[in-house]
C-alpha cells in the first residue's frame, strides 16, 4: 500500500513520517506549495532528532514531494495531476492543520475544515479507493470540563473552549459524512496535547505548548514598563519587585497573575513519539468499514499545578489559581484573559476514555509518566533567551515509552 501524508514537516507529522518509513518503501509527502524545500526541511529535522545517517541518505529516493494547497479544490493541482495522484494511493494520512488556539473561526476553518474537505475529495477520486486516516484531537469534546469523554461521542452540546476545537469538530463531521456517502472506511485519531522531551531547536517545528508560552510572554511584554524604578513596602523596605512608570511591573519583575483554575484539575499530555507509534499501530488493525475513532491519550493525566509550574519556568510570572475572575484585574490579567480559550484548560478535570486502544494494543499503548522535568527538557530556552531559574534541578535523560 502506498501512502500519502499531509503535514509531514509538522510537530506530529515528522514523527508519523519517521514511523511510516519503518513499514513503507516510500511515502508521498503532500507539502504546502511555496513553503520551501520540504525534502531539505524534513531531512534536517530528522537529523536534529537523531535519525541515523544511512536512513537520512536514502530519503531522496524514499520520499516523493508533491506541492499542494489544502485550501484549494483539487489541492491546487491540475485535473490531470490530481487524478494521477489520487490513483496512485492506497492510504491518505491527513495530519496537516492549524493549532492556533487564539485564531478566529473563519481562519481556522480555511485550514482545518476546508483542508479536510479537499483531502477527502482526493480520497474519493482515487481509483484504488484509498483509506483515510484523519488526525483530529481529543479536544473535540469541547467545553465539558468534568466527567468522561468517550470515543463514540461527537456533539457540540457543551460548546467549545476556542475556535480551534470547533474547527476540528467540524472536520470530523466531514469525515463521517464522507464515509456514509461513499460507503468507505475511515480512521479518526484523537490525540491529546502532544509534547516531547527532545530539546528545542530553531529548525525544528514548534512545540504545541510554545503557543501558550508565546501568548503569556507577549502579554507580559506589552504590560511591562521601562525603565524600572525601585519601590518600597509600607514600612519603607524594598518590596522585592521592580516597578516602572505608571506603577507597571519593570522588566526584571515577576508579576503575579490571577487566573481561574482548579487546584485538582488535570490535563492529558502525551509524548508525540509515542502518539505516532500508537497511531500507526492502530492503522494496521482491521477496519470496521465505517469510521473507527480512537483516543490517543496518556493513561495518566498531568496535574494542573504541574502545568502552572512549567509556565512559571518558561515565562517570568507567578500564577495564582483562583475560583473566579478577579473584580479588579491588572492590565496583564486583562490581556491574558483576552484569550479565554487557553487559560480555560486550567479548569479541566475530565478524563478521555481510551479503553479500546489499551484493549487492542496492550502494553504498546502504555507510556511512561509525563513530569515537569521532561516537559521542561522539550521547552527550555536556549542561550540568549531567558535563563532557567537557578533553583531548577537539571532535567533527567529522556524516558522511553513502552
From TrEMBL:
Residue span(s) of domain Thioester reductase (TE): 5-279
UniProt feature, compositional bias: Low complexity: 222-234
**Family annotation (Gene3D superfamilies):** NAD(P)-binding Rossmann-like Domain
User: Which Pfam families would you find in this protein's record?
Assistant: NAD_binding_4
Residue ranges with Pro residues bias: 387-402
Positions of the UniProt region annotated as Disordered = 222-262, 383-402
Task: Report the InterPro entries cross-referenced here.
Answer: FAR_NAD-bd, NAD(P)-bd_dom_sf
| Superkingdom classification of source | Bacteria
Q: What is this protein called?
A: Thioester reductase (TE) domain-containing protein
Amino acid at each position: 500500500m502506498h501512502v500519502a501524508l499531509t503535514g509531514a514537516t509538522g510537530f506530529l507529522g515528522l514523527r508519523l513520517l519517521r514511523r511510516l518509513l519503518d513499514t513503507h518503501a516510500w511515502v508521498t509527502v503532500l507539502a504546502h506549495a511555496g513553503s520551501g524545500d520540504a525534502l531539505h526541511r524534513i531531512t534536517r529535522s530528522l537529523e536534529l532528532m537523531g535519525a541515523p545517517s544511512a536512513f537520512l541518505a536514502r530519503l531522496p529516493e524514499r520520499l516523493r514531494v508533491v506541492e499542494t494547497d489544502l485550501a484549494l479544490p483539487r489541492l491546487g493541482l491540475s485535473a490531470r495531476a490530481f487524478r494521477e495522484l489520487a490513483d496512485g494511493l492506497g492510504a491518505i494520512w491527513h495530519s496537516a492543520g492549524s493549532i492556533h488556539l487564539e485564531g478566529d473561526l473563519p481562519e481556522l476553518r480555511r485550514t482545518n475544515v476546508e483542508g479536510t474537505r479537499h483531502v477527502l475529495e482526493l480520497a474519493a477520486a482515487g481509483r484504488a479507493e484509498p483509506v483515510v486516516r484523519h488526525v483530529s484531537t481529543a479536544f473535540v469534546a469541547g467545553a465539558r470540563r468534568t466527567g468522561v469523554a468517550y470515543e463514540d461521542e461527537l456533539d457540540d452540546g457543551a460548546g467549545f473552549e476556542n475556535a480551534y476545537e470547533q474547527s476540528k469538530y467540524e472536520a470530523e463531521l466531514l469525515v463521517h459524512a464522507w464515509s456514509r456517502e461513499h460507503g468507505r472506511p475511515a480512521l479518526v485519531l484523537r490525540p491529546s496535547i502532544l509534547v516531547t522531551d527532545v530539546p528545542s531547536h530553531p529548525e525544528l517545528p514548534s512545540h504545541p505548548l510554545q503557543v501558550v508560552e508565546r501568548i503569556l510572554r507577549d502579554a507580559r511584554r506589552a504590560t511591562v514598563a521601562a525603565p524600572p524604578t525601585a519601590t518600597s513596602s509600607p514600612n519603607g523596605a524594598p518590596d522585592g519587585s521592580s516597578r516602572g512608570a505608571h506603577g507597571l511591573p519593570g522588566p526584571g519583575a515577576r508579576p503575579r497573575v490571577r487566573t481561574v483554575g482548579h487546584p485538582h484539575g488535570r490535563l492529558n499530555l502525551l509524548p508525540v513519539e509515542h502518539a505516532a507509534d500508537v497511531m500507526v499501530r492502530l492503522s494496521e488493525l482491521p477496519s470496521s468499514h465505517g469510521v473507527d475513532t480512537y483516543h490517543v491519550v496518556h493513561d495518566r493525566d498531568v496535574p494542573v499545578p504541574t502545568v502552572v509550574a512549567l509556565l512559571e519556568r518558561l515565562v517570568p510570572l507567578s500564577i495564582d489559581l483562583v475560583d473566579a475572575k478577579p473584580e479588579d484585574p491588572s492590565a496583564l490579567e486583562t490581556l491574558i484573559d483576552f484569550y479565554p480559550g487557553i487559560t480555560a484548560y486550567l479548569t479541566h478535570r475530565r478524563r478521555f476514555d481510551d479503553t479500546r486502544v489499551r484493549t487492542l494494543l496492550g502494553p504498546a499503548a502504555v507510556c511512561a509518566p509525563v513530569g515537569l522535568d521532561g516537559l521542561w527538557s522539550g521547552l527550555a530556552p536556549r542561550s540568549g533567551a531567558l535563563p532557567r531559574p537557578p533553583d531548577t534541578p537539571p532535567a533527567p535523560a529522556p524516558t522511553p515509552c513502552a
